[in-house]
Every structure is written in C-alpha cells, then in structure tokens.
Amino acid sequence: MPVTVAFESAYRKLNPTQKKAVDSIEGPVLVLAGPGTGKTQVLTVRIANILKETDTEPSSILALTYTDAAAREMKERLISLIGQDGYYVKIGTFHALCNEIIADNPDRFARPAGMQNVTELERVNLISEVLEKNSFKLLKPVNAPLMYVKDIIGSISILKREGITLKKFSELVSILKDEFEIEKGGMSKTARTERETLVNKNIDLLFIYEKYQEKLKALGRLDFEDMINWVVEAFENDADFLQQYEENFQYILVDEYQDTNSAQNRLVFALSSFWGERSNIFCVGDNNQCLPGDTKINTAGGEKNIKDIQIGESVLSALHSTERRNQLLVQLSDVQGRSWLAFGNYQGSVD
C-alpha cells in the first residue's frame, strides 16, 4: 500500500508506546489501556501499517468489535487513512461474522429459510409458556409463578455467551448432582440445604433451557448467541472447514477485548489456531474492566480467589463484581484469558 499523507499524519500523532503497538506487526500482541486513550485508533492505524509494510491483501485482515456503530466508525477511519483498500478489510461484529459464515455455508448449517432473531418480548412469552405448562421445584413459586422469568432469560443468555450448549449444561448439572450426593454426608445442615437448592435450581433451569430451544426452533427464531456457538462447534468439529477461514485471515484484531465472552474467545482462538504461537492476533482492551486478581468466586467447594481457580473448574458466581452470575452453574473455560495473561510478546499501557 502506498504511504498516504493521512496515514503519516495519524502515525506522527501517536506516542512512543502507541507506535510500539502499531509497529509490532508479527505475532500475538496485547495492548492494555484505559478509556479514552486511543485504543481503537491504535488498532486502526496498525491495520494501515500492516498493509503498508507487508504484501497482505486487505481481505486477509479481520477486525472484530462489539457494535455495528463501532464497526462503521472503524471502517470510516481506515478508509480515511488508506483510501479504497479500507473497503476490503473485514471489519464487523462477532455476530455479523458468524451470520455471514452461516449464510455462506447453507449445507452445513441447517438454518430454515426466514429464520429471524428472537425479540425480547418473544423470549418472555416463550419462557412464560414453559413455566405455565410445567411444574418446577424452585423456579416457579406458587404465589408468583412468573417471578423468575427475567432471571431465567438472563441465565440462559449467560450460558450461551459462555459457549455452554444444552448438551454441555446437562453434563455439568449431572456432575453437580453427583458431587452433591458424594459430599452431602460431610456437610453441615445449612451447607447441605444451600447445595441442594443450587442443584435443584439448575435441574429446573436445564429443563427450561431444553424447552426454550425447542420452542425457538418451532417458531423459526434464534438467539444472537446461538450463531456464534453454531460456528464455533462447526470449527471445533471439522478441521478442514476451519482451515478455510484460518488460511483466509492472516491477521486478526479484536477491539474491547475485555468484553469477550467464552464463546467469542473460542471463535478467535479457533481462527488463529492454524499459526499456533506465531498467530498474528492483536487485542486491545481495558484491564481495569476485568475482574481483579483478588475477586472472590463461589465454587461448589466454597469461596476462592479467582487466581486460584483452575481451568475447567466449575464456578457458581463472582462475588462483588458488576455482573453477578445469580448462582448459575457455569464453566470457567480459560482463567488465563480472563486475567489478561493469554497473549504474549508485548504488554503495555497506552498513555
């Protein structure tokens, strides 16, 4: 790509730390910075620098962000820096990318024609129908049978964002039940009651999750989170299919990385796995928005610091955090990724 006046001007305005991030083209790079410190600008200028310094095709660069507005802004910034080549860089949201992959592979993804995203009102109605037509131990109080509708919707959404499919959740609930049966003899009465309540809540939730998915399919609807999980599962189960996309995207950049959930992380890791430790993956985010190392986590075995949680360990909720888990059973898939230790050759703040 020929050097443009706009690019040179934008590059000169960067401080030394920002320039280091922009100039670190090869390998995994993680940039940590607070709000308003130019993270997105660094990411955009870095895309331009990749095209300037290498023979990479614009279409071989993938940049992921969280809203359509942010994607449009990034695209406009890039076009202002490099001209028409900016149109061909793949910039979009995680959901838009997965929606495109699904649409481009209709034989692989059995998505009925006309299937649309479910609305919030439809979610409420579907969950309410499940509650009204079935009996539950804990999630349907006698005097207020629809009391937990919003909590249930939120819990299912969390499960999907964490990449926990119905099958996986069923396995986790079985483990929770088995652990309780083994350990309840040594528990105090209070601890036993609390654990039994947790088990029964998740048994109820599992049934509701299953019926909700059935109703979505019958209605011709899907959750946003379903799209990412479908693609991730397809990638993880078919190496040849994944390789088509791995080879296409030589550089992957992620904005606001602290907001990625497990399903999105699995998507990014899958797309970059072809190159292993040499993956050209660049993430920018705000570590102050992550759970700090001394955050208390509820686990089946009691309260622990987040830094003491092992990969694959079942956790229940993060205490004192902005996003509480409502005593929901979730699987902590990558503690290091959540603690900002996943990527390696450069970690520095952007002043």
TrEMBL record:
<dbReference type="GO" id="GO:0000725">
    <property type="term" value="P:recombinational repair"/>
</dbReference>
<dbReference type="GO" id="GO:0005524">
    <property type="term" value="F:ATP binding"/>
</dbReference>
<dbReference type="InterPro" id="IPR013986">
    <property type="entry name" value="DExx_box_DNA_helicase_dom_sf"/>
</dbReference>
<dbReference type="InterPro" id="IPR027417">
    <property type="entry name" value="P-loop_NTPase"/>
</dbReference>
<feature type="domain" description="UvrD-like helicase ATP-binding">
    <location>
        <begin position="12"/>
        <end position="340"/>
    </location>
</feature>
<protein>
    <submittedName>
        <fullName>UvrD/REP helicase</fullName>
    </submittedName>
</protein>
<dbReference type="GO" id="GO:0003677">
    <property type="term" value="F:DNA binding"/>
</dbReference>
<dbReference type="InterPro" id="IPR014016">
    <property type="entry name" value="UvrD-like_ATP-bd"/>
</dbReference>
<dbReference type="InterPro" id="IPR000212">
    <property type="entry name" value="DNA_helicase_UvrD/REP"/>
</dbReference>
<feature type="binding site">
    <location>
        <begin position="33"/>
        <end position="40"/>
    </location>
    <ligand>
        <name>ATP</name>
    </ligand>
</feature>
<dbReference type="GO" id="GO:0016787">
    <property type="term" value="F:hydrolase activity"/>
</dbReference>
<dbReference type="Pfam" id="PF00580">
    <property type="entry name" value="UvrD-helicase"/>
</dbReference>
<dbReference type="GO" id="GO:0043138">
    <property type="term" value="F:3'-5' DNA helicase activity"/>
</dbReference>
<keyword id="KW-0378">Hydrolase</keyword>
<keyword id="KW-0238">DNA-binding</keyword>
<keyword id="KW-0067">ATP-binding</keyword>
<keyword id="KW-0347">Helicase</keyword>
<dbReference type="GO" id="GO:0033202">
    <property type="term" value="C:DNA helicase complex"/>
</dbReference>
<dbReference type="GO" id="GO:0005829">
    <property type="term" value="C:cytosol"/>
</dbReference>
<keyword id="KW-0547">Nucleotide-binding</keyword>
